[in-house]
Amino acid sequence: MAQQEMSLSWFSLLSLLLFKVFVSGVFSLNPNGSEYISAVGDPGMRSDSLRVAIEAWNQCNEVGEEAPKMGSPRAAECSDVLDSQQQGGNCSACTRVPPSLVHRVTEEDNLLGIGKSFDGLDKKALFNPDLYAAEKELYLGSKCQVDDKPNPWQFWMIMLKSGNMDTYAAKCPKNGHKVGPFGPPSQFPCFGKGCMNQPLIYHNYTYLQGPNETTLKGSFYGSWDLDSGLSQTSVNENISYYSVTWQKELGQGSWIFHHVLRTSTKYPWLMLYLRSDATSGFSGGYHYQTRGMSKIIPESPNFKVRFTLNVINGGGPNSQFYLMDMGSCWKNNGEPCNGDVTTDVTRYSEMILNPATPSWCKSDSPKLCPPYHTYPNGTRVHRSETTRYPYEAYHLYCAPGNGEHVEQPSVPCDPYSNPQPQEILQILPHPVWGEYGYPTTKGQGWIGDPKTWELDVGRLSQSLYFYQDPGTAPAKRKWSSIDLGTEIYRDANQVAEWTVTDFDILVPNKN
C-alpha cells in the first residue's frame, strides 16, 4: 500500500510520548458560551494533524476474501505535524527549519492480513477474513486514537462498497439468516466466480510539498479489477477506479477531500462515502465494534451538520449522490441493537442530490411511499391523502424484511445488502425540506453550484417515518454514521468526482 514512508528521529519519538497531551489540547477547543459544540474530533477538518482510514465491504458488508497481496481491507493514515521546537531546536535559526511529519501507522500495519497476528487480536479472528477486518480496524484505531472529552476518537472513514453478488456462492445472509445458493436475481451484477472480490488499495503517504514545504497532501486509490495494472491515471481507462486525495495548507483552512469513483462493465455498482462514524459500538450497516470521528453520537432532534460540497462530475443518471446519508440501528420494538443480526435493523435516511433521480413514490401506486409524512409544524399526513401528501419529496421507501405489522401495500428492502434487515427512506429536493436547510428544487448544489450547507439533520430525521411494532415505545434515534458521497447503481463506465471540506456535526452545548 505504501508509496512513501517517513522515518522517525529520536526527537520525533519523544514527541510521540507527549502526543496525547499536545493533541488533546488542540482538538478540544470550543467557543465558550456557544449554543452548539462540535461532536467530531476534528471540527471543520482544520487540524494539520491528519486522521483518516479506509474500509472496503462486499455486497453484504463483509470481507469474504482478501485481495491478493493487499492484506485485510482496512488501512489508515494518522500523521502529526511537528514544528522546529518539537523537533528539538533551541536556536533562533530553528524557526526556519521546515516542520516534519510523524506517521503513527506503518506500511506493515496497513498490510496486515489473515494469518498475521497483532496486539489484541482474538485467536478466533486469525483466519476469518470478516472477523479479522473488524479486529484490524480496532487495532488501527488504537494507533490513531486521540484522548479527548467526552470520549476519545480515531479517524474519518472512507468507505468503499461493491454491489456485485455471487448468489451461487451463498456468502450473504437474507435478512440476517443464512441461506444456500440460489439462481441470480436480476438486480445483482456478477461476472462469475470471484465477482465479490475486495479492491486493490494503494496509499500515498502524506508529506510536505510545494516550494516552501507548506502543502500537506496524500491519498488512497485503487481498483476492483485485480488484473488492471493500475496506475494513477487509470480513471481514463475501462476499469473500475477510486481515489480519495486529501490536501491542506499548513495552519490554514480545512482539509480538502477530493473523491473520484469510476464504474466498469465488470463492476457497474460501486459506492464511495466519507463518513463520521461512532468511536465505539456499532456504526451504520456494520455489526462489529467500530472506530470513527464522532466522539458524541448525534441524536434526533437536536443536531446539525455543516460542510462544503463541490460536485464536479455527477456519475451519470443512476448516481444516487447523497447530500446527506444517516445510518443507525434499532430493533422493531424500539430497543437499541445488540448484535443479533436476525432482530437488529439498520435504518438509513438519504437525501439524493442528483436532479436526474425521479420520484418512485406515486399517489396511484403508494407502495414505495412512507405511510406518513410529517410537516415541520407537526402535521401528520397519510399517503392516501392525495391533496396533502408530498409524493414528489420522496424517491422511495422500503420496509424492513422482518417487520410483522408493515402497512400494505409495501416493498421490502433488499434482504441481502446488509448483514441484517434494513429500512431505507430516500428523499429528494423539495420545498417541504426547506425549513431544515435542505435543497428545495432539483439542481441546487449540483454541478457548477458548490455550496456550504448547514442542515438541521436532527429535526428532519425526527420527523421522518420509520417502522416500529405497534404499542412499542419510540426508539431513540441516535445516528452512529453521518456521511456523504455516491452510490452509482448498475451503470458501467460512469465517473463521479467531488470535494468535501469543513465537515462538522454540531450538538447542543449542555454546559
Structure description:
Pfam families: DUF7705 (PF24804). Keywords: Signal. InterPro entries: DUF7705. Residues 1-28 form the signal peptide. The protein is mainly beta and 511 residues long. The protein has one domain (37-83, 95-508). Helices cover 9% and strands 29% of the residues. It has 5 helices and 20 strands. The strands form 3 sheets. It has a 10-stranded mixed beta sheet with strand order 4-3-2-5-10-19-12-13-17-16, covered by helices on one side. Strands 1, 6, 7, 8, 9, 11, 18 and 20 form an 8-stranded antiparallel beta sheet that branches. It has a two-stranded antiparallel ribbon with strand order 14-15.
Key structural traits:
511 residues; mainly beta; ten-stranded mixed beta sheet; eight-stranded antiparallel beta sheet; disordered N terminus; signal; DUF7705
Write the layout of secondary structure elements.
Blueprint: H1 10-17, H2 19-27, E1 36-38, E2 50-57, E3 74-82, E4 100-103, H3 107-110, H4 129-144, E5 156-162, E6 202-209, E7 215-222, E8 241-249, E9 252-262, E10 270-277, E11 304-314, E12 319-329, E13 346-352, E14 372-374, E15 380-382, E16 394-398, E17 422-427, E18 451-455, H5 457-463, E19 481-488, E20 495-508
Parallel strand pairs: 2-5, 13-17
Antiparallel strand pairs: 1-20, 2-3, 3-4, 5-10, 6-7, 7-8, 8-9, 9-20, 10-19, 11-18, 11-20, 12-13, 12-19, 14-15, 16-17
Domain DUF7705: 37-507
Keywords: Signal
Pfam families: DUF7705
